[in-house]
Design brief:
Rossmann fold; 17 helices; 403 residues; 7-stranded parallel β-sheet; alpha/beta; 6-stranded parallel β-sheet; single chain
Length: 403
């Protein structure tokens, strides 16, 4: 079975997943832009370009009249590779809608079409009012879901999705919210596959064993940890404000922030302004898995105050309870409120402070939550189970059609 994926680039966490899919018997071909496309991947996200079990094909790109990236060599690559399945994610499934020749090529070569989405911030069909309760921001927290032009584009995108889903043989999704959203676009439940999303949990759990046997890296504290790029929509500023409300009651506590980004100076200024110097540590970007593992192992709570997702998986590998709010949709499949973490009210500093304070006052609950986190990774959402879900989706797509 040969599968062609279209992506904006290959991230450090995607590569091990693709390799695992190959090990399970799928011939994977990645089609990515010949130049780095930040509009698809995101600024500052670590990309890789190294030897792997999967094949990489590069395509020239251009901006379509609709404002999104087009892989100009996609038709040629599909014609040469002749895959069984092509997986189109955002924004590349727009090509299927706008390029009649691409649709004819896929049909002529009997290539099965699979659409891959999170699907985070995808409204139910016909419900533009969705954006009132779920506003869309960019990384700088600039509101995008405003103005007539946004809602016209959103309405057009709804109908494009409906068209593409009508012709798709299956959909692959990061999160189980797909079961609530995609039926409104006419997708039958048997065509909805939820794979979840994962980091390289095999490496993380192997590394964990070495970390647990190593001498401590840090002074022992009640450590609240955040990992991620320092951009506005991560809401690290909210986390700092929340910590400022409770730190005086916990003299042995520390807020540790791992990551770099354009907001670092603003956040450091915020720390000084709130009198938190010496209580908030900026560790910078850490990519070494062992050192990163030491920070997670020697922390008490993991907090994601804004957007993100995979850092939750990684923290759970180290038995951390998780506090989060609205992330990228995957958090709902990872964190159970009151079981291995808590959800705070989105954007509410008092709600976040209350969650942190409660866990710091109850170390036994922190320990119990952390045990559940680790078990969930070991048994439910990990590199092996997620890659198996991809393979199952591909096999069922081909089998059901042949049947």
């Amino acid at each position: 079975m040969k599968v062609v994926f279209t992506m904006g680039g290959i991230t450090h966490y995607l590569s091990p997943l693709l390799d695992n899919i190959v090990r399970k018997g799928v011939d994977v071909v990645m089609v990515i832009p010949s130049v780095k496309d930040n509009r698809t991947i995101g600024k500052g996200v670590k990309l890789i370009n190294s030897e792997a079990l999967y094949q990489v094909r590069y395509s020239e790109v251009k901006q379509g009249w609709h404002g999104k990236t087009i892989l100009t060599d996609l038709k040629m690559i599909l014609d040469e590779e002749k895959p069984d399945i092509v997986v189109l994610g955002w924004p590349y499934f727009l090509q299927y809608f706008f390029d009649r020749q691409l649709r004819l090529l896929i049909k002529k070569n009997n290539i099965k079409l699979v659409i891959r989405e999170i699907p985070f911030q995808v409204p139910p069909f016909g419900h533009l009012d969705y954006f009132k309760e779920n506003p869309v921001y960019d990384e700088n927290m600039v509101l995008q879901s405003r103005g007539m032009s946004f809602f016209i584009r959103a309405l057009c995108t709804m109908y494009i999705r409906k068209f593409v889903y009508k012709h798709a043989d299956a959909t692959i999704n990061y999160a189980s919210c797909a079961y609530d959203i995609l039926p409104s676009y006419g997708v039958n439940r048997d065509k909805i596959f939820v794979t979840y999303n994962t980091s390289d949990t095999e490496s993380l759990l192997r590394q964990r064993e070495a970390v647990l046997s190593a001498p401590p890296l840090l002074e022992k504290k009640q450590r609240i940890l955040h990992i991620g790029r320092l951009v506005k929509w991560k809401r690290v500023d909210l986390l700092i404000d929340a910590y400022a409300k409770i730190y005086s009651d916990f003299p042995n506590s520390e807020l540790t922030i791992i990551g770099n980004g354009p907001e670092k100076e603003n956040l450091q200024s915020q720390v000084e302004r709130l009198g938190l110097k010496g209580r908030v540590a900026f560790a910078g970007a850490i990519y070494d898995p062992f050192t990163l593992g030491q920070y997670m192992h020697e922390s008490s709570i993991y907090v994601l105050a804004g957007m993100g997702g995979l850092s939750i998986n990684e923290a759970m590998c180290y038995s951390l309870p998780v506090i989060c709010s609205v992330c990228d949709g995957t958090e709902k499949d990872l964190v159970q409120d009151g079981v291995n973490g808590y959800y705070f009210e989105n954007g509410n500093v008092d709600s976040l402070a209350k969650c942190i304070e409660y866990l710091l006052r109850n170390p036994q609950i922190m320990k119990a939550f952390g045990d559940v986190s680790l078990k969930k990774i070991q048994e439910e959402i990990n590199l092996d189970t997620v890659s198996s879900r991809f393979v199952e989706a591909f096999e069922k797509t081909l089998f059901s059609l042949k049947k």
